[in-house]
Amino acid sequence: MFTVRTPRVVAARRLHRRRDRDETGRFLAEGPQAVREAFRAGVVTELFATADAAARHPEWSASLVDDAAMEALADTVQPQGLVAVCRQRDVPLEQALARKPRLVAVCVDIRDPGNAGTVLRTADAAGAKTVIFAGDTVDPYNGKAVRSSAGSLFHVDIVRARDTAATIATLQAAGLQVLAADGYGKSDLFDLSDLHRPTAWLFGSEAHGLPRDLAVDLRVRVPLYGGAESLNLAAAAAVCLYSSAKAMRSVE
Amino acid sequence: MFTVRTPRVVAARRLHRRRDRDETGRFLAEGPQAVREAFRAGVVTELFATADAAARHPEWSASLVDDAAMEALADTVQPQGLVAVCRQRDVPLEQALARKPRLVAVCVDIRDPGNAGTVLRTADAAGAKTVIFAGDTVDPYNGKAVRSSAGSLFHVDIVRARDTAATIATLQAAGLQVLAADGYGKSDLFDLSDLHRPTAWLFGSEAHGLPRDLAVDLRVRVPLYGGAESLNLAAAAAVCLYSSAKAMRSVE
Q1: Could you read off the pLDDT of B170-197 as tens digits, one per residue?
Q2: Does the interface predicted TM-score (ipTM) exceed 0.95?
Q3: Domains of chain B and any CATH numbers
Q4: Inter-chain contact B235–A235, Cβ cutoff 8 Å?
Q5: Where does the record place the RNA 2-O ribose methyltransferase substrate binding domain (chains A, B) (predicted)?
């Protein structure tokens, strides 16, 4: 009953590699919170659990594995004995836009999986219904991105879009204003009067910012009142997305 | 001229340990940005540089060290050849309050140096003049906290205060309202009408939140509009501090 190297464990382990995730359309989610959200989203195809973890979660039927197999399956030091194989759940941009999201977050060339996952989590918290992983942004199903999203990967429409320029054009055609969060942007976030309008926010990498040549509607800076030269990505995204969320609610 | 284990290098290396920082009242700042800010703040007692780095920064006089000594002095993989020994610059709470700060951030029992440094950076960006490291919060001069602050350690009044309850009482006596950022708080941040008043924001650790028994004026939650169960600390602090900053400026 306890298995270390069954073919299914071996196949699941391979999902730590992007190539195998891309080929199979599967990914791994670990820990009780992520597994619970994955079940709610209806995307779990198999759950591996240690005997201890399975006993703590009788609500889930699991394939029992020993500690060595769990260690091989898990990406973290403390997986808490639960790793689920999940179906990838991204949708085409058109399908996400058909649901008429009023707030969209777009990660542009964000290579750090922790940062991308945090933007996803913050966007979900602020009420964004769609999060787009654009350009060279990290795979949303990367283990660290999944963890950093703290379950939000399972709450919103995830879109993967290689062509950032085309994505912006499609968002604008759907009636969203496209705002770029840019530390050097000409517009002060707190001077904007149109934040209640349907909006897509673009966030770039902390190291390189956003490409200069994107045809966005405005480049917007979060004002810096003290001596800091910049905000980190999570902080800037939170201020921008919540400013929109607040403005949208104040006109309802 | 190039030195590896001079007594000064050996003494500087010891500043990676908290005990030696506490005993000497010194700490290390590395990389060109932090060193520049440390010079501006007038707290550099000695600068160690590789020959390459010294050539890139002729404006600073440095003790030249070889790569091995630099590696020993630096906390990071890429110190860019610059490590400064700095005087600790924290001040008593009373001294900080004498400058009548209108926005104060208080880290309460934040053990993660990256998180504490990020709150410091965000507070500085939002215009806070004082940042308090209270209770069991990490040493503000911890290498990772210094790095995460991205220079902001040198911009604001830093206060270290072991007794969180006494700190809150002192802040209130100085006329500041004390708001606790709390995911389970009764008050919705966006319902508050008093954010223009002088305010101290308390932020707890992501894992454990704030102690329940603090006599704050209000416990305030950042509203969650989507499926996310919480925000990460950097995001929550950014939304709270910038909400205050915006409100304070709109009444000026």
Answers
A1: 999 999 999 999 999 999 999 999 999 9
A2: no
A3: 7-87 (3.30.1330.30), 93-250 (3.40.1280.10)
A4: yes
A5: 28-92
